[in-house]
Amino acid sequence: MNEALLLGILAVAVCALIGYPAVSLLRRRNLGKEISEWGPESHMVKAGTPTMGGLFVVAVIAAVTLIFDFFGRYSMMAPLGVLAPLTALGFLDDLGSLKGRRQWALNKRIKFVAFLATGVVAALGLYELLDLRTVNIPWSGRHDLGLLYLPVVLGVVVLTAGGVAVTDGLDGLFGGCAGIAFAGYGVIALLQEQWYIGSFCFIVTGTLLGFLWHNAYPARVFIGDSGALPLGGGLAVVAFMTGQWLVLPLIGVVFLIEGLSDVIQVGYFRLSGGKRVLRMAPLHHHFEHLGWSEVQVVQRFRIVGAVGAALGVVLATKV
After folding, report:
1. With b meaning 16 or more CB within 10 Å and e meaning fewer, what string describes 170-208?
2. What pLDDT is stored for residue 105 in this prediction?
3. Is the whole model's pTM more than 0.70, yes or no?
């Protein structure tokens, strides 16, 4: 446990310090984000804020993990193996949203195929290499799913990566909620005496805390899809490595409701011929339209995330 916490503290310091030259480099390269005209009008002042902060976030996570939490623990290739392709995919997606450059969106079919390919590799790796194929059900115990495990992993990795990315919309929202979720799984892993997974989770939490040093309102940098996509996929893999993926909707409750709000809004808009359920999707923008300040939305969503993570950890102990 001490090692996991110390690695988390190290990651905070490394990311916070590296953030200064990294943000300056992103600014010099004119990698500022174009703010969508469909978003809240108050967000227009953020135009030009550097994005792609996920590149140095993932770099810190990978470096600290490889140096301190990898040798002799080669199963850590599972979460790291998901981070790599999703970071590349997120980077390409971020390129199309830069201010002062031609706006374009990554082809949805290509993006979906990339998601599926990553999910398939993750599923096969967990099933064949790590021999994981069970689900832990509170008060019921551990149950073997056999081959059904493969499509479950595929679906959860794809949906989690996409749902988590939707949450990246307010200063400090993604970093805070993702840090809480990884901390929740870090506690679960440590309770299971899976020290290496616990260490990885706290490395991610620490790195995100270091990132929040620069992403706190008003943000100096956004994490972008280059960080949100890989960390969403990584969270799903960690959930399967602990066997506690069934409580992922609780531990990542903010990601769940944000993703659902987007799906419901788009689906209802198409089915109803232009009507809306929310004033604006995802859900965090809806609350902004109701009069909540950006800071209020972020803090309250973090509270919901912390309560969900705590409930998830409690249920994980009841197997």
Report:
1. bbbbbbbbbbbbbbbbbbbbbebebbbbbbbbbbbbbbb
2. 60
3. yes
